[in-house]
Design brief:
mainly alpha; 21 helices; about 0% strand
């Protein structure tokens, strides 16, 4: 496979970007639905005993539980993607992901089957987490290995454009239904509709993914007989230090990302006494603003590098997280929106470059697996737990500034690996991982 074809076939690159981003869109469509203020209350009350008392925290606990399965999905699907190819694995993950989201829409509630209801919901969420564990690393790898070297940041930013678009679609649908349907209808059957929509979205994504070839980089490696015979063993033996660096950066990404996208809508309602509709309007508005700048920021990183944007975000969170949450304590929606926008504005600096940065940290033969393992362990520890941990700490301490303090801590931790990271903008993906983490002699790579 001539790698130069990747540079001269923009149609193939566009197909790969669409095929990759659509999976992220479906994943975050689910998060947008699940974390909408009204939906967290409904899910917690429909599937658990106790009605609406503590319903929000029960829903956040379900989100955290699903993340327990993500590292196992990364361990399973990641090395498989390095051995069998990116395309095959990504076709499997999108089908599992959309199918399990659809299942939430058909599950009976606590009033129908008692304690089997939360157990069934937990099982479905674990399948979601397992499949998602193999999704993001493969999708980012697919784009990075298809994109032209000098435009990897530009094309990589579309993966997170899928994140923000999916979130807006999910939360926007819930908001629309909440405005159009009565409370009785919404609690009775209306809440199921967004989850049911996930299946046709997934089938579209599956079709798109089966219509593309595997990445030129993977095919070239395969043709030259350089595939690792034991990707998981090679990953853990030789790249654990780089995986730890990745986890440190993902710590900040996840704390900021999941605080903003899964916790904040309920935070505005439960702790700042804002009505659910205004909360959703602010959330969707900030996400829409992030969409308008994420691709230009990705393109900017192709010119100035990824590190300047990552450093700016981390330092910005250290300095501005507390003032941002101070703004949110005002009673005026503009103050709340301003504080929210600061957190979102710094987050988009990270989102714009991670799909170009993280795959370039590892060589082709272990890229999918190493990325998936490190990313999902960190996400499981710090992303899925963010909402329930922050909510519980606010309840215990009575301080509405807990989210700011947690983001500041994550930013300080992430600064260390960010500053140690070697710049790979402009470096071909085939050699970027070798530059980042040269493999010791006698690795056993095939």
């Amino acid at each position: 496979m001539d790698l130069s074809k990747r540079e001269s076939d923009p149609q193939a690159v566009r197909k790969a970007v669409i095929a990759s981003a659509i999976g992220n869109c479906i994943e975050w469509f689910d998060f947008g639905v699940f974390s909408a203020g009204v939906m967290t209350m409904i899910i917690g009350s429909v599937f658990f005993p106790g009605g609406e008392d503590g319903a929000t925290l029960r829903s956040f606990a379900l989100i955290a539980a699903a993340f327990l399965a993500r590292p196992f999905g990364g361990l399973f699907f990641g090395p498989m993607g390095d051995k069998l190819g990116r395309k095959r694995v990504l076709a499997t993950t999108i089908l599992l992901m959309s199918g399990s989201t659809f299942m939430i829409g058909v599950l009976p509630g606590y009033d129908e089957i008692g304690m089997l209801a939360p157990l069934a919901l937990l099982a479905v969420r674990l399948v979601q987490g397992f499949s998602t564990g193999g999704e993001y690393g493969g999708a980012a790898t697919m784009i990075a290995e298809y994109a032209p070297t000098k435009r990897r940041g530009f094309f990589g930013s579309f993966l997170e454009l899928g994140t923000l678009s999916g979130y807006i679609m999910g939360s926007g649908l819930v908001l629309t239904m909440d405005l159009l349907l009565s409370d009785e209808t919404m609690h009775g059957w209306g809440w199921r509709i967004p989850f049911l929509i996930a299946l046709p979205l997934g089938l579209v994504g599956l079709y798109v993914r089966t219509r593309i070839e595997d990445t030129p980089t993977f095919q070239h490696m395969e043709a030259e007989g350089k595939k690792s015979q034991s990707p998981l063993k090679d990953t853990l033996a030789h790249y654990w230090r780089v995986i730890l660096m990745l986890m440190g950066i993902v710590f900040l990404l996840n704390v900021a990302d999941y605080t903003l996208l899964t916790f904040m809508p309920s935070y505005l309602v439960d702790y700042l006494d804002m009505d659910a509709e205004t909360s959703q309007f602010i959330t969707i508005g900030v996400q829409a603003a992030m969409i308008t700048v994420i691709v230009p920021l990705g393109a900017l990183s192709d010119r100035i590098g990824r590190k300047p944007l990552l450093v700016t975000a981390a330092v910005g969170y250290v300095l501005l997280a507390w003032p941002a949450f101070a703004l949110m304590q005002t009673d005026h929606p503009l103050g709340v929106a301003g504080g929210y926008a600061i957190i979102g504005g710094l987050l988009v600096l990270i989102l714009a470059v991670i799909a170009a940065t993280f795959p370039a940290m590892f060589p082709t033969r272990v890229r999918y697996g190493a990325f998936a393992i490190g990313y999902n362990i960190s996400t499981s520890l710090f992303g899925g737990t963010a909402a329930v941990l922050i909510g519980s700490l606010i309840d215990v301490t009575g301080s509405n500034y807990i989210p700011a303090f947690y983001i500041m801590l994550a930013a300080l931790v992430a600064l260390v690996p960010i500053l140690k990271l070697r710049e790979t903008a402009g470096v071909p993906i085939e050699v970027a991982g070798e530059k980042q983490a040269p493999e010791p002699a006698g690795s056993g790579a095939g």
